Amino acid sequence: MSAARTVMIVEDEPKLARLIADYLAADNLASQWIADGTQVEPAVRAHPPQLVLLDLMLPGRDGLSICKDLRQFTDVPIIMVTARVEEVDRLLGLEIGADDYICKPFSPRELVARVKALLRRVDRAASVSRFARLVVYEERHQAQLDGRTLDLTPVEFRLLNTLRSEPGRIFSRNRLLANLYPDHRVVTDRTVDSHVKNLRRKLAAAAAGEDLIRSIYGVGYRLEL
């Protein structure tokens, strides 16, 4: 792992946070410590880490609500940390968007192993698309087409990420809607069409006018690279 990688430790117990930081440093991973739940979202926006260790019980805000809010604008890997075993089912639920969890008390070595495994998984996902025209960095919420960085909104990024997950597949509007809004808000088909129109325009600007999203009448959309 590169020393440039930073793990955000969201933990209100100073001794435990320092212990985790020491073990991460031993594996060449930098860390940033935050003890108050209200400070997490601004910190992630200002200086995006490569992974977040997010305690469930925090002063200010709880880890579940923080995780849900982070998923509104970033795909940074999140490992939830909890001392409440009864919360495990909720932590694994798709509605909060966590990637993994670990229960207290835990072995610091096991925690570091989980962190490294998740970072490797993210690296593999990025490397698969690096050879294509479209390069997607899910943990950074960024995408490039033909070497040009795309200026995408969070919804447009999720739309593009869904379409590129299975190139050539036709995605129905309902399927796209299910992936666009983590909070499952009620929107119309026209909302999807509007986002597709904006995304198509941005892709065309990066690809010399080429139209990469094909509309299949009465069915949906597919990405053609």
Topology:
Elements: E1 6-10, H1 14-26, E2 30-34, H2 40-46, E3 51-55, H3 63-70, E4 78-82, H4 88-92, E5 100-103, H5 108-129, E6 134-137, E7 142-145, E8 148-149, H6 154-165, E9 171-172, H7 173-180, H8 189-206, E10 213-216, E11 220-223
Parallel strand pairs: 1-2, 1-3, 3-4, 4-5
Antiparallel strand pairs: 6-7, 7-8, 9-11, 10-11
Helix pairs in contact: 1-5, 6-8
Overall description:
This protein is α/β, with parallel strands linked by helices. The chain has 2 domains: 122 residues, Response regulator (Rossmann fold), CATH 3.40.50; 92 residues, Orthogonal Bundle (Arc Repressor Mutant, subunit A). Helix content is 41%, strand content 20%. The chain is built from 8 helices and 11 strands. The strands form 3 sheets. A 5-stranded parallel sheet has the order 2-1-3-4-5. Strands 6-7-8 form a 3-stranded antiparallel sheet. The protein has a 3-stranded antiparallel sheet with strand order 9-11-10. A hairpin with a 2-residue loop joins β7 and β8. α1 packs across α5 and α6 packs across α8. The longest helix has 22 residues. The two termini are 32 Å apart.
